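Record type: ASSEMBLY
Status: queued
Input:
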Amino acid sequence: MNSIRLRLFLILMLATGFVWLSGVVWTQYSTRAELRRVLDARLAEAAQMVSSLISDRRIDISEATDLAAGPQPNTVSGYSHRLSCQIWSLDGTLVGRSGGAPQGRLAGNVTGFANTMVDGAEWRVHTVVNADLGLRVMVGDSLAVRNRLVSDVTKGLILPALLILPALAALIWLSVGRGLAPLNRMAGALAARDASDLSPLETPLRDELRPFGAALNGLFARVASARARERDFTAFAAHELKTPLAGLKTQAQIAAMAEDDDTRRHALAQIQTSVTRTDRLARQLLDLTRAETVRDDGASVSAATVLHEIADDLARMAETKSVEIRPEIPDRDGTVIGDAALLSVALRNLLENAIQAAPEGSVVDLSLHRDSGNLRIAVKDRGPGIAQTDRARATERFYRGADAGAQGSGLGLAIAAAAAGRLGGTLTLTPRDGGGECAILVLPVTGT
Amino acid sequence: MRVLIVEDDATLGDGLSVGLRLAGFTPDLVTTCADARAALDTDDFGAMVLDVMLPDGSGRDLLASLREQGVDLPVLMLSALDQVRDRITGLDAGADDYLGKPFDLDEVTARLRALSRRSEGRAQPQSHWNGLTLDPSRMEGQLNGAPLRFSRREFAILSALMDRPGAILDRAALEDRLYGWQEGVESNAVEVHIHNLRAKLGTRFIQTVRGVGYRLAPEGAP
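Status: finished
Output:
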């Protein structure tokens, strides 16, 4: 049941029906009780009256029975309610009975009220014993008539209800529709929005819709800021790619117009370096996007394996710079990191940075330690280190220190920091004792 | 003409240096705003090619502060930000021209020639003196209808003299035009180039002012 309107309608209808039915049951019960009280009182009164009349001997016993039964056939109402009276002697002979009274004895040897079966019908009987005359006066009426009275009262309640029900249903249906109108207005305002419109909802909202509207506005704000970030990033990335492209074009033009071989060779060599660097930039842009957005399922590879892989991968790059990568990784470390791909991305960028910063013939140390639920991976070089003034902004995207060589894209540390964050860890950059930079990744361990 | 290139990308900086040298300019390359200021303080440049995004700040801010200090050097701004708005802010910061990356090397040199021409108050691309017509875009000349070709340095000296005919330029000023920082100055290079120019233009086209320097002979004199 997807429609709130239908749902509300059914709930309201069921509730109304239930209340109505309860009313009917209660009315029936209370009517029955009240009727019994009133009619019982009348029975007792009539029996008492007959008993006292015959005691005074004002009337003959045989006539007394008709007094209690009241006027003959009541034709006005369908209830033709009549009391029946029998007078029995204490020894069990019928002394007299009223006109409409049944042949059978109305009650046994009891005093007061009793429900009895007489000639196959149920009766309510009140018996009074007149000890002076040795008589038993019984006045009763048929329960069938009483029941018909009660059921007629109930019918009188249910019948109009059945007639009113369709009208009530229509009213509820319309009211629910009207009640839900603010929701429809809100939906309309949202549906009419342009995809680029992320401004807050301005429709005045009802109390019940306000948290909903606030949540939506919060979402809009978050989406807008994410989108702005994305736009800035794209603009920046385009800018960062255009500069190497300009370099490539210029060098290509020089190669084409150079008259001597040296100039041409120089230009071609420049083109090759630039292509390598631009390729790295493109890879880093993808890395960054991956580190910031993609949620990997995380292959369960141990951190040590990842470290070895990266060190092997970058060995050639280090070799061309005459730099040695010296991994210090415990052999049997089976520590598993949440997402091996993210760790690999972070580490590759840190190590590339270190190799680029390292002076020729120096060593880049790569180590892995485990302490109290954390994994500490350190990459240390003997390069110039990050300038004090650049330290605060070192992990900003595209931020290049003033002293940084022309090699960097300004993305490496941003990628490493983003990847570390996604892994639930941190990246800290500190000056190394004795010169150089020390990058430490502290990551929570997910399993061994 | 000495041109200061301020560009932090190694490949592009190198390309501009080589390209401008091939086109007859004498370029010097720096990669930061600070270095650019230092270079402008110590040397005399004919023009500047300035990148906007530099490691230690914005080229736009550098230019604005230079203009405030009264530096009226022609400046060609290069930027990857080449939206109309970026061009406007660049030009308003004091740039004389603006080129978006990536650009054509020939366009850069053509614009630099135009900038230097304008800064010297000329509108015509060629300069004329005593029957010699000099075409900077092709580094060629014509003397009374006969085509002449010059080496890069010969052309640099000749165009320096032609820029202000009659003015005396001393050896240091000419060397300054010829050599960037990376190039070692050969002791008698200027004399050698003047000698070669006289062989092509006639001995009296360039006059030696004893103890001072060189100048073009007055018009109608040779």
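Annotation: The interface with chain B takes residues 238-240, 242-251, 253-254, 257-258, 263, 266-267, 270-271, 273-274, 277, 400-407 of chain A (CB under 8 Å).
Annotation: The radius of gyration of chain A is 51 Å.
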